Amino acid sequence: MGGTVNSIYNNLSFALNLQTDAFFRLQEQAATGSRINRASDDPSAAYRVLGLNSQKRTLEGYMDTIGQTMSTLEISLTIIEEMVSALADAKVHVSQIASGIHGEGGRETVAEGINNTLEQMVSLANTQHMDEYLFGGGATGSAPYAVERTDGNITSVTYQGSFEDREVEIAAGVQSSAFYVGDEIFRSDSRGEIVFLGDTGAQAGTGTSSVRGDTWLTVTGSAGDYSLSIDDGLTTVNTDGTDTNLVVTDSRTGQVLYVDTTTITAAGIDMVRAPGTYDAFETLIYVRDILNNEKGLSDDQLDELRVASMESLEEVRSYLADKSASVGSRIGFLEVLKGSVEDMKFGTQDEGAMLQEADIAQIAIDISRQQILYQMSLSVAGSLMSMSLLDFIR
After folding, report:
1. Does domain 53-187+308-344 have CATH number 1.20.1330.10?
2. Which residues lie across from 154 on neighbouring strands?
3. Average pLDDT for the chain
4. How far is CA 316 from CA 10, 84, 154, 170, in A?
5. At residue 215, what are phi and psi to the nearest 5 degrees?
6. For 30-49, what is each residue's pLDDT tens digit?
7. d(Cα 355, Cα 348) in Å, to the nearest integer?
8. Sign of CA dihedral 134, 136, 142, 148
9. Residue-range domain boundaries for the chain
């Protein structure tokens, strides 16, 4: 009989402990508002909640990256738009010179203004954001453009940044870059036919020249013994005037110009234009030098070159305007993507909340039920444990 009494007691204690645990668990859920306070409460749902929380953090990371990328691109867009405006103003001033609105003093003033625009353009191209250069491609730690000066004025601007983008993941399987390769932004690359402007009579040869933008071709000597140079006389190439495809090389850059020398009639200086290859900085340098008549050209040739300068400025301005639209389009894409990622994050968050949050109304009902059940169990336990020896004897 002792075994029977012990068995009854153990069973009652076990049942009461189970009900107590259930009651405390309901009270904890009511207090925290959470249905899952530990993995053991619902292992399957807890595992799912952990996965959703991890996904939410990943999406938040993507949103931060997209936000930072958009911020950087917006600054780049502002800079490019400033450059477009500066080039448009430069073109207007040159057109006023070409149309004769300004006299000699005005020409010098415009040349000084072009020089100031050049300084501004280089400074903008070397802009930093968060200690990173915007237009150096993947090389964001150093200034992408270096300048050479003569008597304080910029005579050459060289790109020394990276030619590769630095891409980051902005969403699952989606990459983008906030840092542009400056050489692709500020220099067009759709080469057209070479054009010679000047009085020497030189024409383009049959080879594909690699000179870019505007180049000065210097022809010295006389018929049957001409010397040609495109690096301001640092190196020359001689011809007797019978070469139809003479190679003239710039010793500073390695660029080549193919010249048909059979049409040369006089010594002099020609401007060689390579449409579709203009660089924003070199273009401004040439425009400034033309306005200052650095080469000592005739008035007629200067007038011709000023008109050509407007075409060069317009090509660069138009190219930069297209790039501005491209950057704006990328910002728009990122804005839409950010909205989509944000929606995904909210969806993930809501799903996790639905799994984890407790139904307070249902818990209140369950607590009330559990209290009644517990009281009934206590009553039954009291009756069983109050049995005396006489009850067993009977």
Report:
1. yes
2. 149
3. 84
4. 92, 8, 19, 32
5. -135, 140
6. 666 666 665 556 667 666 76
7. 11
8. negative
9. 53-187+308-344, 195-277
